[in-house]
């Protein structure tokens, strides 16, 4: 093939040219169009014959959010007989393909949709009628036959492709950063063949420094998280699409949750109603119960690690971040002091790396989350100066603001108290939480069961569809690509408070803000 692959330097030089060579994009001299991409015409194609005739420009500027090509006059680029080889022209449809790009979304990909029965190919692979895929820099577009290479696409908007290994960029279009923290960075990515969005967690492998290994990015810890995530199958637990292990980093591709974190939902509303809390909390308890049934204790439950599928109130909840989780068998016990301090159970702090503790620690963390959902502030805080944070937790002395708890039912208070019980043996169990009087709302139970059932069915159908497509691809000379639309979302990782643990996001503290600072109705509860 005699196609030209345009270099970045050549493209940047040409981008600055104000005199556009395209008929449909001619503007007044005072206006410089925002060009996000270009379609460069190939010089030669099959049998080294010229595809394009001499009057055709060297490239087509891509300016609008949509660009269509075909013989119809309604197309952005109308292909006429004086432009292209006659043998190729007869195989071009009235509307052959269309390019779309969401210009309002930073680093969004270019999506090409095949509208022709004669076929549109990207890098020799057939897209398929009414199917789509994502275009990447220097991709080659062919019409009607893979050898009829008509265009070379050049992406003029910055993307993150050059910052990941080839095995990643080959399958995924890497977009903007969603968040980052001590453990790594999370980026929005698109599957190039399915056009679906995912969150890709990038964890850099630690290197030995001064003879010591960074605990946070210890390869063993990374693989522990991966093994846990890959083993889990539950609608309320984040699913792992793929894990790619390289020499320098591990890339974990996760489903993307557009509703964001539970933490953000609470802070945006100050606190949640009992009805909404009951709906979301039931899912959290079911998720943790499933983890425990698999011999897994999360050990880092907090609102930042609870993700929501949508912006709606009645939405699916998913537990994420298993970096501190541990499989617990008959001969395995936990004694490591880990997790986020504000949500840690007393027995974890009392273990000091010597004593053992069990999965009851997750119930305590659920109790803190429950408290925060209803009241909108943390039960324990280092801002309460009369007692250290550790002593508050170890003694179970949480602060109650009657102003914040006014109107919250007695049953909700009793459930919170039963979860924030210092002695693990006396702490309420997960089954008892589900059977607690406060949780007995038939409408909520039916709604949650229906939501989880639908999620399970959708997941099973998706896996079946992907499996079928994969089998077809293996027996086909050209792979057909599917289109799926998935909503966006963000996943923010916490920063690091020290070399080991992340800092929890800050909630308003009753004892340290505004009128509540001197509120005589503030009181402590202690089991003593």
UniProtKB/TrEMBL annotation:
Domain Protein kinase: 172-439
Keyword Iron-sulfur applies: no
Keyword Kinase: yes
GO molecular function, one term: protein kinase activity
Alphabetized InterPro entries for the sequence: FHA_dom, Kinase-like_dom_sf, Prot_kinase_dom, Ser/Thr_kinase_AS, SMAD_FHA_dom_sf
Family annotation (Pfam families): FHA, Pkinase
Region Disordered: start-end pairs: 1-20
Keywords: Kinase, Transferase
Residues of the FHA domain: 67-127
Protein name as it appears in the record: Ovarian-specific serine/threonine-protein kinase Lok
């Amino acid at each position: 093939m005699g196609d030209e692959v345009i270099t970045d330097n050549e493209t940047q030089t040409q981008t600055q040219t104000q005199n556009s060579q395209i008929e449909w994009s001619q503007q007044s001299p005072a206006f410089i169009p925002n060009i996000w991409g270009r379609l460069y015409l190939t010089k030669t194609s099959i049998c080294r014959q010229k595809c394009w005739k001499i009057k055709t420009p060297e490239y087509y500027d891509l300016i609008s959010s949509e660009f269509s090509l075909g013989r119809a006059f309604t197309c952005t680029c109308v292909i006429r007989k004086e432009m292209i080889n006659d043998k190729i022209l007869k195989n071009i449809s009235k509307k052959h393909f269309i390019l779309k790009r969401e210009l309002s979304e930073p680093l969004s990909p270019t999506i090409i949709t095949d509208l022709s029965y004669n076929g549109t190919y990207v890098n020799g692979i057939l897209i398929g009628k009414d199917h789509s895929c994502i275009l990447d820099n220097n991709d080659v577009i062919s019409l009607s036959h893979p050898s009829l290479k008509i265009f070379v696409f050049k992406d003029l908007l910055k993307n993150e492709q050059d910052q990941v290994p080839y095995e990643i960029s080959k399958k995924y279009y890497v977009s903007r950063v969603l968040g980052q923290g001590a453990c790594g960075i999370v980026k929005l990515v698109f599957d190039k063949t399915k056009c679906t969005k995912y969150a890709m967690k990038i964890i850099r492998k630690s290197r030995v420094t001064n003879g010591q290994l960074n605990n946070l990015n210890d390869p063993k810890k990374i693989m522990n998280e991966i093994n846990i995530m890959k083993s889990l199958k539950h609608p309320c637990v984040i699913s792992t699409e793929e894990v790619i292990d390289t020499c320098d980093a591990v890339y974990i591709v996760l489903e993307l949750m557009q509703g964001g974190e539970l933490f953000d939902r609470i802070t945006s509303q100050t606190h949640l109603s009992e009805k909404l809390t009951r709906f979301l909390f039931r899912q959290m308890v079911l998720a943790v119960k499933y983890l425990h049934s698999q011999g897994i204790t999360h050990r880092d439950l907090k609102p930042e690690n609870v993700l929501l599928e949508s912006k709606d109130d009645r939405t699916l909840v998913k537990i994420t971040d298993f970096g501190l989780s541990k499989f617990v068998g008959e001969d395995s016990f936990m004694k490591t002091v880990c997790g986020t301090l504000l949500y840690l159970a007393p027995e974890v702090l009392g273990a000091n790396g010597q004593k053992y503790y069990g999965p009851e620690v997750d119930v305590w963390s659920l109790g803190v989350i429950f408290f925060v959902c209803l009241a909108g502030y943390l039960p324990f805080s280092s801002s309460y100066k009369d007692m250290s944070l550790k002593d508050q937790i170890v003694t179970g002395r949480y602060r109650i603001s009657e102003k914040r708890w006014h109107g919250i039912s007695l049953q909700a208070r009793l459930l919170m108290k039963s979860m924030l019980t210092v002695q693990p043996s006396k702490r309420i169990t997960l089954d008892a939480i589900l059977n607690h009087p406060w949780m007995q709302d038939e409408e909520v139970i039916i709604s949650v069961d229906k939501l989880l059932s639908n999620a399970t069915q959708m997941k099973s159908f998706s896996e079946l569809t992907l499996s079928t497509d994969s089998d077809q691809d293996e027996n086909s000379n050209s792979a057909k690509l599917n289109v799926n639309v998935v909503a966006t979302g963000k996943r923010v990782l916490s920063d690091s408070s020290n070399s080991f643990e992340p800092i929890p996001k800050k909630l308003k503290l009753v004892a340290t803000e505004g009128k509540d600072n001197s509120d005589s109705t503030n009181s402590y509860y202690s089991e003593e």
